[in-house]
Design brief:
- With 327 residues, the protein is mainly alpha-helical.
- Helix content is 74%, strand content 1%.
- The chain has a two-stranded antiparallel ribbon with strand order 1-2.
- A hairpin with a 2-residue loop joins strand 1 and strand 2.
- Helix 4 runs antiparallel to helix 17, helix 5 runs parallel beside helix 8 and helix 16 runs antiparallel to helix 17.
- The longest helix is centred in the middle third of the chain and has 28 residues.
């Protein structure tokens, strides 16, 4: 199923998110800031986090009407926080391309990128504060802190060839899954859902986020530049061990050769060989099984705990959709 079909029940609300993003990003009076903001708006992502806020709010709706204004503000805020984190990630990882376009970092430099990321965080939390809901603020502030902590841990663990799968999953839960979980939980808070609904949706978002990151890590190893919108092998070059590589190492076959390749992140031929070894091994199947496990966990967390609706159905379809990126 295409993303447009999955988003159909919340089409109107997503248009509202685009409006609030445009309003937030073009509110500056500086022509320099407006130029960069328009560059960001010209390349929208999949808007997964705003969609999860809205779908979760609608799926867990406990009152006759959801506070639409707060829901749209929270959805927009989650996207701004996400974009800010990507801009900072691109600085940390020295990434030059994203969505087949030059990154802010490669176009305007590190100083502008860092300042812009901070600016977007402030815009996001400005939208959250406008909701005047302490529970929403606490939920998203906590997730943002955890996300930044995950990024920090990942950088500190670079070149650690003894990294364990459990440690990798801790990083993924913090760096990526926490914001997905908060998107779902915040949506449930907006709809005044009771705690069991909030917890069910938070668990959905957490497992969704873990699956999403493993897919990203897998694509960074086996994907093609034109499909990824950026050059593959970023994790390899930065010395970051991901689940696909950990699964490859766990096979013990030619382990010394794989370690040798990982110790030469500056060699393109080393990346190509590692990529081929992964594709030709059972580690690829194992990684796909891991992804499927977390997708099923996500769906199971809301299966019997959230009432049936077109919004719940979209959450199911969205979990299945992210796996299609590997096909």
């Amino acid at each position: 199923m295409r993303l447009e079909e999955i988003y159909r029940p919340i089409e109107k609300e997503l248009k509202g998110v685009e409006q609030i993003l445009r309003r937030s990003l073009t509110d500056a009076r500086s022509k320099s800031v407006l130029k960069i903001s328009n560059y960001l708006l010209d390349s929208p992502g999949k808007r997964l986090r705003p969609a999860l806020v809205i779908l979760s709010a609608k799926a867990s709706q406990q009152s006759p009407t959801v506070d639409e204004r707060s829901m749209i503000s929270v959805a927009g805020a989650m996207e701004l926080i996400h974009i800010a984190s990507l801009i900072h990630d691109d600085v940390i990882d020295h990434t030059n391309l994203r969505h087949n376009r030059p990154t802010i970092n490669s176009k305007w430099g590190q100083d502008v990128s860092i300042a812009l990321g901070d600016y977007l965080y402030s815009l996001g939390f400005g939208l959250i504060s406008s909701c005047k809901n302490k529970d929403i603020l606490s939920c998203i502030a906590s997730a943002t802190k955890v996300m930044c902590e995950g990024e920090l841990i990942q950088v500190c663990e670079r070149d650690n060839l003894s990294l364990l799968k459990e440690r990798y999953l801790i990083i993924v839960k913090k760096k990526t899954a926490a914001l997905f979980a908060a998107s779902c939980q915040a949506g449930a808070i907006v709809s005044k859902a009771k705690e069991p609904y909030r917890d069910a949706l938070r668990q959905y978002g957490l497992n969704f986020g873990i699956a999403f990151q493993i897919i990203d890590d897998c694509l960074d190893l086996i994907g093609k530049k034109k499909n990824l919108g950026k050059s593959p092998g970023a994790d390899f070059r930065m010395g970051e061990l991901t689940l696909p590589v950990l699964n490859l190492l766990s096979q013990k076959k030619d382990k010394n050769r794989i370690i040798y390749l990982l110790k030469h992140p500056d060699r393109q031929e080393a990346f190509r060989e590692l990529r081929q070894r992964f594709i030709n091994s059972s580690a690829l199947l194992k990684t796909k099984e891991d992804i499927y496990t977390y997708i099923q966990k996500a769906k199971k967390s809301i299966m019997n705990r959230i009432d049936n609706s077109c919004f719940k159905e979209s959450l199911f379809h969205l979990a299945d959709y992210i796996a299609t990126r590997l096909k």
